[in-house]
Amino acid sequence: MKSTTPARQRKKRMTGSTSPASTSKQKTKQVAAEVPVQERQERYKRVLLLPDYFPEPETRKVLFELFSPDASEVFLAGTFNQWQASLTPLRDRGNGRWFVELELKRGRYEYRFLVNGQWMDDPWSLAGVPNPFGGVNAVMQVGTGC
């Protein structure tokens, strides 16, 4: 009687018999081919809609900063506080650095600083729009959906 050695068993697996792993791959391909293309595309779209699972928050914290070494008081006025500068004072961090953190809803806001009673542009703003007084209001976009 002839016995099968482990080497012969390995050779037999490699040369023709289908292994369980390759059988499951074939079944997966077959099932995927049976699902209509449109249905697969719909499934794919549903998976990619991450905002459905992780919606953007209604509000975000926004940090406003200004460097003004000669300032004794600094306020922030804009469309978020109806241009009422006294409602939003900045805090002194020392060495001429001023800051305030606001919780703002998604949207577009215009603003300016009021330093020692004088309007001042935001030197770090990347966008601005002319205002009716001859200056430039800085523009802040909060959130990605706007």
Q: Please, could you describe this protein's structure?
A:
By secondary structure, the protein is an alpha+beta fold. The protein has 2 domains: 6-53, no CATH class; 59-142, Immunoglobulin-like, CATH 2.60.40. The protein contains 4 helices and 8 strands. Strands 2, 5, 6, 7 and 8 form a 5-stranded antiparallel sheet that branches. Strands 1-4-3 form a 3-stranded antiparallel sheet, with no helix packed on it. The longest helix has 15 residues, at 20-34. It is elongated. The relative contact order is 0.13. The mean pLDDT is 77.
Summarize the structure.
This protein is of the alpha+beta class and 146 residues long. It has four helices and eight strands; from the N terminus they run ααααββββββββ. It has two domains: 6-53, no CATH class; 59-142, Immunoglobulins (Immunoglobulin-like).
How is the secondary structure organized here?
Elements: H1 6-14, H2 20-34, H3 37-48, H4 50-53, E1 59-67, E2 74-78, E3 91-94, E4 97-105, E5 107-115, E6 118-120, E7 128-130, E8 136-142
